[in-house]
Amino acid sequence: MLTGKQKRYLRAKAHHLNPIFQVGKGGVNENMIKQISEALEARELFKVSILQNCEDTKETVAEELIKGTGAELVQIIGHTIVLYKESKENKQIQLP
């Protein structure tokens, strides 16, 4: 689990990032979870955007992504979810 200090640090790092995934009408599916897992391994920290036509709530989408990828939820802000997962081979972020 991330501490409050670590979440603050990650929020600051994620601030300038653009969302690289979008969850739309279909919601979260296996293929998306696979792609997000691979992207987490490569980047460790990124944003997922939830489109207006998504039928699930932001919280539901975040929960499904966390369960599927094993990532940590940094924050949900507006229609954007910030996820973090420590990379096994490509570690770039040093948490405080």
TrEMBL record:
<dbReference type="InterPro" id="IPR051925">
    <property type="entry name" value="RNA-binding_domain"/>
</dbReference>
<dbReference type="InterPro" id="IPR017924">
    <property type="entry name" value="RNA-binding_YhbY"/>
</dbReference>
<dbReference type="InterPro" id="IPR035920">
    <property type="entry name" value="YhbY-like_sf"/>
</dbReference>
<protein>
    <submittedName>
        <fullName>RNA-binding protein</fullName>
    </submittedName>
</protein>
<dbReference type="Pfam" id="PF01985">
    <property type="entry name" value="CRS1_YhbY"/>
</dbReference>
<feature type="domain" description="CRM">
    <location>
        <begin position="1"/>
        <end position="96"/>
    </location>
</feature>
<keyword id="KW-0694">RNA-binding</keyword>
<dbReference type="InterPro" id="IPR001890">
    <property type="entry name" value="RNA-binding_CRM"/>
</dbReference>
